[in-house]
Specification:
The longest helix is centred in the first third of the chain and has 19 residues. 15% of the residues lie in helices and 35% in strands. Helix 1 packs across helix 2. It is of the alpha+beta class. It folds into two domains: 175 residues, Immunoglobulin-like; 90 residues, Immunoglobulin-like (Sandwich). It has a six-stranded antiparallel β-sheet with strand order 3-4-5-10-7-8, covered by helices on one side.
Length: 289
């Protein structure tokens, strides 16, 4: 409980190779899924710290190591964070529902010398093999399954016919798999976006279309608040990756305008999202250089 928050540390010190950059929010969250797969499935009691299941990225030292930290319920509005929540819940469900995930017989290859780390759980009802690439480049590794035959990927439901236990598997950066020799129900990791219709929009909160639009390189984003609110205004690219945060503070009722400078970004479609209390609105803008 006295360690630095994982996503904060990734944002500060995360590694990269080519276009694969762990400091990008979406990739950083995927790395937490990878780490969580191993953290929770290594036998033993585990602790889940506040909002760790949503990728808490406030430093443990903010305001002092033992000070109160912000409660960020708005994390739940981010699809990537919701998927992280569901992934961790699915992993913990394995621990609570199947004895094979709390076995007396197991072996580990998780030391720092291993870029592709492995867990082997030997239960009475099934066997489990877990693999994960903790590097930032593509790697291959000998699987060393416990036995030949059919194995099943927990998250995808795909089957793998293992003819030889020393089969070599290829792993993309951050790729991970939980294989079992008994087919398990596939966890629901789908996130459904609920879009409000006009009748449900709170009329006294408003996010306006940026101007100018299209723009190059700067544009102004305006919004209005009817009451004191905790406000966040963020920019995302077309893949849903967070680009920057323009506003993240409490603001009084009134009209506000923020200038967004995209001089360092490539041309394309971007989205800006305003969260003010219960009000959430997203709009599209076009950067045309």
């Amino acid at each position: 409980h006295d360690e630095e928050r994982m996503l904060y540390k990734i944002k500060q010190d995360g590694n990269s190779s080519g276009t694969y950059d762990t400091k990008i929010l979406t990739t950083g969250i995927d790395r937490i899924k990878l780490a969580s797969t191993f953290f929770y499935l290594i036998p033993g009691t585990k602790m889940l710290w506040m909002f760790g299941e949503l990728g808490y990225d406030i430093s443990i030292d903010q305001g002092g190591r033992t000070s109160e930290k912000p409660i960020l319920w708005n994390y739940w509005t981010n699809n990537d964070r919701q998927k992280l929540y569901k992934t961790i819940a699915a992993i913990i469900k394995l621990k609570t529902n199947y004895e094979a995930f709390s076995p007396s017989s197991y072996s580990l290859a998780v030391d720092n010398i291993y870029s592709v780390k492995k867990i082997y759980l030997n239960g009475d009802s099934m066997n489990v093999s877990v693999f994960g690439n903790f590097n930032v480049i593509n790697l291959s590794s000998t699987a060393n399954f416990q036995h030949a035959g059919m194995w099943y990927d927990y998250f995808s439901g795909d089957s793998l016919n293992v003819v030889s236990t020393d089969i070599s598997l290829n792993f993309a950066p951050g790729e991970y798999h939980i294989y079992t020799d008994v087919k398990l129900p596939i966890p629901d990791l789908i996130i459904t976006d609920v879009k409000s219709n006009d009748n449900s929009i709170i009329t006294d909160y408003k996010l306006l279309q940026n101007y100018p639009n299209p723009f190059n390189p700067s544009t102004v984003i305006s919004y209005q608040l009817s009451a004191v609110s905790n406000v966040t205004l963020k920019i995302f690219d077309v893949l849903g990756r967070e680009v920057t945060t323009l506003v993240n503070k409490e603001q009084s009722a009134g009209n506000y305008s923020v200038t967004f400078n995209a001089s360092r970004l490539s041309s394309g479609i971007y989205f800006y999202r305003l969260i003010a209390g219960d009000y959430i609105q997203t709009k599209k803008m076009i950067l045309m250089k």
